[in-house]
Structures are given as structure tokens and as C-alpha cells.
Write a structure and sequence with these properties.
Layout lengths: L9 H8 L2 E2 L2 H5 L3 H4 L2 E2 L7 H17 L3 H15 L6 H25 L7 E5 L8 H6 L3 E3 L4 H5 L10 E5 L1 H6 L20 H5 L1 H9 L4 H12 L2 H17 L6 E6 L2 H9 L8 E5 H7 L2 H5 L6 H4 L2 H6 L3 E5 L4 E8 L2 E11 L8 E10 L9 E6 L2
Parallel strand pairs: 1-2, 7-11
Antiparallel strand pairs: 3-4, 3-5, 6-7, 8-9, 8-12, 9-10, 10-11
Helix pairs in contact: 1-6, 4-5, 5-6
């Protein structure tokens, strides 16, 4: 049904790279929605092996390689690690389940961009001897794109699930004489009851909903997102992964949210932000820790990079760079200042909408932040 040799969209690559690698024990503690943002392999407790498997799947998705190539890659990796814990059958299940989830996340992003012209979605199962009965029953059934069914049962809905979704115009629905159903039962297997594409957009969706809430509720909600403890833990684990890997592969992680004071300041400057969500990418993080900066004493250590969510949430000062438009989150570190430079409404390749991204971070003298170039949004230097 899906040709993995012609993989897929930039969105699919980003979706998989955004996953946090966790041990099965930690993964089991997550909600279904959170599980869509995490990666693990049942029975594999070694983080180095899990990271290797994640990296091999990442390369397969990005390069459009076949399962045979993936299996060869993993065989060499496991031999190097001196570990033999995965049979060819399990490797294929791991490969196809994760590639399908990434493909469907990319598929979902593309379909969400055209809901104005294609407002109806049709569930499509393969319909052969391997198709689950519950999936076969859904084959051909059509619902509005915003029906709650898609929040829990957008494919894949189980290991080795090959189902997909077809987007339809009103004209296609009419010509094919399709019935639009008002509801459908959830069909996802345990652990799969979450839309992978929506998981990628969880924070953006939360912001969209918050804007419709009363102001007091919105303020409380934004404050809770600014100080999200689970996000801080996930970001810390992500930094460990990219520092260990040492290569920029296009992976991203949510750092936090702008506070309301910052949003109001930007609004006053006629800067309409797409969302308050702030992310980091592995390229920027590796740049912040690069050798040249370390030699000058300006670089952040991996442990300091892990503090970025706390710095964004509890900055002593937030500045606006009027010459090179960006937000600066600033805290004191002994006799210096740590500054976190954040680009607003940045067009990240593969992202469906502009994002706010940490461009770099480092240590500077207090005097470097003084002068007319920087406007203080809140706090003091």
C-alpha cells in the first residue's frame, strides 16, 4: 500500500526526529498522546542500543531506503555493540511501524493544509488476509476531517498497520455517492490511540484552543505551559541524545512558551506571532556548544543547554534586538550573562507554519547587552 522506497515528506522526517528516545519503563508511564512523541523498543533497556535503532530508522526515512538496507545497517550496528537481541521479524515490525507512523504524520500535515478544499477524509484499509477485522470494517467510511474519530484512530492503529486516509472534496463525495458518517468507534490498538500528526502539533493546537478561552483562563493556561515540568525533562533527554550523536540531523524539541508580556510587546511592535511556542533544533544547539566558542569561554556546556527551558521560563530580563530582530532571554552566570537568542516567526524547512526558534545561546558581558540596540521587554540587566 505504502511504498517506503519513495518516502515521504519533510514533515514525516521532522516528526520522527522530534521523538524522544526512552526506555520501555519510562515509555509505559506516558499517555497515548505523549507516546506519539516518544520512541522505544519493547525489551530493549540499553539507551545506546535504542539510540542506534532510532538513528537507523531516521536514516531510512530521510534517505528512502528499504527494509533490507535497514536490516543490514542494524546488523552491523548490533555486531559493533556486541548485542544480539532482535530477530529479523522484530526488526521488520519496528521498521514498518515507525516508518508508517512517520509517513502518516507527514500525510496528516499535508491533508490539514487543504481542509478548505478537501473537508472529508475516508479511511482506507488494504483488505487482505492480514487486515485486522476492526480496520476492515472502517474501510471506505467517510467522516469530516475534524471528527473526533481522527484524534484517536488516524493510522497507524497498531503494529504493522498499513491503513491510510484519503482526503476528498465535496464534489468527489457527491460523484462517488458517499455517505458522511456522524460518528465512528475508535479502532486503535492499545498504545496507538493518538494521532501522530496531531502529536507533532500538540502545542500549536493547545495555543489555538487557548485563544478562544476567556482572558483569565488563557493567562493561567499560558503560565502553566511556560513552566511545564514534563517538557523540561524531555528536553534534557533530547540534549543528551544530540550531544551523544554530535551531528545535526534536523531534529527539534519544544523549549517552552513566550509569556503574555512578551506577546503583548510584539503585538505593539506590529509583529503578529503564529504561536508562542519556542523550539530548538539540533543544529542550533550544537552551534551553541561548538569548540570555537568553548575556547573563548562563550559556549554553554551540555548541562547548561539542558537549562534552556528554565532560562526561557524564568529569565531575569527579556530583550528585543532592534537591529537583528530577535528575542533575548537573559540570566546571570557569575560575572557574565547567558543570552538565548530566539528568532520569531522563523520559516523552518518542513514546518507547516512559522516557528519561534532558538538560533544560538552563549555567554556575554553585561555591557554587551546595554545600549539603544536592545529594548527591555521586562526585567532588568
Amino acid at each position: 500500500m505504502i511504498s517506503f522506497e519513495s518516502l515521504p515528506f519533510d514533515e514525516a522526517i521532522m516528526f520522527f526526529r522530534d521523538k524522544t528516545v526512552l526506555t520501555p519503563e519510562k515509555y509505559a508511564q506516558l499517555s497515548d498522546v505523549a507516546k506519539a512523541k516518544a520512541f522505544t523498543v519493547s525489551g530493549v533497556t540499553r539507551m545506546d542500543v535504542l539510540t542506534d535503532i532510532h538513528g537507523a530508522i531516521d536514516r531510512a526515512i530521510a534517505d528512502g531506503t528499504t527494509f533490507a538496507d535497514f536490516k543490514k545497517d542494524m546488523k552491523q550496528t548490533m555486531a559493533r555493540r556486541g548485542w544480539e537481541g532482535l530477530s529479523p521479524y522484530r526488526l521488520e515490525t519496528i521498521f514498518r511501524t515507525n516508518v508508517q507512523a512517520a509517513y502518516q504524520a507527514g500525510h496528516y500535515q499535508r491533508q490539514m493544509e487543504v481542509t478548505g478544499s478537501h473537508p472529508y477524509w475516508q479511511y482506507v484499509a488494504v483488505m487482505d488476509s492480514r487486515t485486522r477485522p476492526a480496520h476492515a470494517v472502517m474501510n471506505g467510511r467517510t467522516l469530516p476531517h475534524d471528527d473526533p474519530f481522527w484524534s484517536t484512530s488516524y493510522p497507524p492503529n497498531g503494529f504493522n498497520c498499513r491503513c491510510t486516509v484519503r482526503a476528498l472534496t465535496k464534489g468527489e463525495v457527491s460523484r462517488e455517492k458517499l455517505s458522511i458518517e456522524k460518528e465512528a468507534p475508535g479502532i486503535a490498538d492499545p498504545g496507538f490511540a493518538g494521532n501522530p500528526g496531531q502529536a507533532y502539533r500538540t502545542d500549536l493546537i493547545a495555543w489555538e484552543k487557548a485563544q478562544r478561552a476567556p482572558e483569565a483562563v488563557r493567562e493561567a493556561f499560558v503560565a502553566s505551559m511556560v513552566e511545564s515540568s514534563p517538557r523540561k525533562a524531555a528536553f534534557s533527554s533530547w540534549i543528551d541524545d544530540i550531544v551523544r550523536d554530535g551531528k545535526a540531523r534536523g531534529a527539534t524539541s519544544v523549549v517552552g512558551w513566550m509569556d503574555l508580556a512578551t506577546m503583548k510587546y510584539l503585538e505593539g511592535e506590529n509583529i503578529a506571532i503564529a504561536s508562542p511556542v519556542i523550539i530548538a533544533d539540533d543544529r542550533g544547539m550544537l552551534h551553541a556548544a561548538r569548540t570555537a566558542k568553548r575556547l573563548r569561554g562563550n559556549a554553554l556546556t551540555p548541562e547548561e543547554l539542558k537549562m534552556l527551558p528554565d532560562i526561557v521560563a524564568n529569565a531575569e530580563a527579556i530583550l528585543w534586538d532592534t537591529q537583528d530582530p530577535a528575542l533575548l532571554y537573559v540570566v546571570t552566570d557569575r560575572d557574565r550573562k547567558i543570552k538565548v537568542v530566539t528568532r520569531v516567526n522563523y520559516r523552518l524547512k518542513g514546518a507547516p507554519e512559522p516557528v519561534n526558534i532558538i538560533a544560538t545561546a552563549g555567554k556575554v558581558k553585561r555591557g554587551d547587552l546595554m545600549g539603544r540596540r536592545y529594548q527591555i521587554i521586562r526585567g532588568k540587566l
